[in-house]
């Protein structure tokens, strides 16, 4: 239904808005992912909560926004020694110190909030840079949803429409949006396997074994091994990371998203879990396969990036 990944930009973006919806449940501290958050929403236009599918309690999910600014300050601009072209963008972005967090609204709440703003301030408020400061919750949720349904809008560029816009003539329109599935900052005590892989940790024995088995369409062995490893490591971590997510994200990272049929993966995971009832001591409720509603919510929107 949607193209894979984020939109491609002809030019490097001057600013990248990186947004993630993965949130911790305030009660059981489990990480709940986008499709699980959506599956827990009620059809109510004033309710900020989602129901955590692991503990059944209401919790407010958050959008976390990281702004990566590639723009050079005036004094940093240099001419490329080979081409002579003025270099206006940095290789490594400047990251704003603190991520922005706003409540992640269900579409009914967002529509009501947007209609309230428009009825009070008029449609043109959406063209003003101050809209971001005055209505950050509506702004960041609109950015999130527009990217999820692959809809272009002027809203990302609104971010650039500040006092620095005059500095940047050639790239003033290039603000890109990247929507992430996982929030690395939520993994404080123990890194999931896909992050260990990306960070090139020395001992990759378990991860290689998991990948070998995923290649052979065998998820029973990886679940057992990851559960065993986790039970050994569990000391201070009260709410462990889901084995389903751990294996899935690793498989995407190592084998490539395009090489994994997630529907097949899910079915194999369910079958493997059913065969592991005697392993119950090491498996937790958080390891459950996604529910039917969760799967529906996942496939309804454009896929998120790992
Ligand atoms: Zn919970």
TrEMBL record:
Domain of life: Eukaryota
Regions crossing the membrane: none
GO cellular component terms given for this protein: cytoplasmic vesicle
GO MF entries: guanyl-nucleotide exchange factor activity
GO biological process assignments: regulation of Rab protein signal transduction
PANTHER family (UniProt xref): DENN DOMAIN-CONTAINING PROTEIN 4, DENN DOMAIN-CONTAINING PROTEIN CRAG
Protein name as it appears in the record: DENND4B protein
Organism: Fopius arisanus
């Amino acid at each position: 239904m949607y193209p894979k990944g984020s939109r491609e930009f002809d030019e490097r973006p001057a600013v990248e808005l990186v947004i993630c919806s993965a949130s911790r449940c305030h009660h059981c501290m489990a990480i709940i992912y986008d499709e699980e958050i959506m599956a827990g929403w009620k059809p109510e236009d004033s309710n900020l909560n989602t129901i955590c599918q692991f503990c059944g309690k209401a919790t407010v999910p958050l959008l976390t926004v990281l702004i990566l600014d590639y723009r050079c300050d005036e004094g940093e601009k240099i001419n490329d020694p080979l081409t002579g072209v003025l270099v206006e963008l940095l290789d490594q972005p400047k990251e704003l110190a603190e991520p922005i967090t706003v409540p992640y609204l269900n579409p009914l709440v967002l529509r009501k909030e947007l209609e309230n703003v428009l009825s009070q301030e008029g449609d043109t408020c959406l063209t003003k840079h101050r809209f971001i400061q005055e209505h950050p919750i509506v702004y960041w949720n609109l950015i999130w949803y527009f990217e999820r349904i692959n809809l272009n809008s002027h809203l990302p560029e609104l971010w650039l429409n500040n006092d620095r816009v005059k500095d940047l003539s050639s790239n003033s329109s290039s603000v890109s949006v990247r929507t992430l599935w996982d929030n690395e900052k939520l993994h404080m005590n123990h890194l999931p396997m896909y992050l260990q892989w990306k960070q090139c940790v020395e001992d990759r024995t378990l991860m290689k074994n998991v990948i070998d088995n995923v290649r052979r369409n065998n998820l029973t062995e990886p679940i057992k091994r990851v559960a065993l490893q986790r039970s050994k490591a569990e000391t201070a971590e009260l709410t462990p990371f889901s084995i389903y997510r751990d294996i899935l994200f690793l498989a995407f990272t190592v084998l490539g998203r395009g090489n994994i049929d997630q529907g097949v993966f899910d079915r194999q995971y369910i079958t493997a879990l059913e065969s592991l009832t005697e392993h119950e001591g090491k498996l937790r409720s958080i390891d459950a396969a996604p529910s039917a509603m969760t799967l529906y919510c996942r496939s309804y929107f454009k896929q998120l990036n790992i």
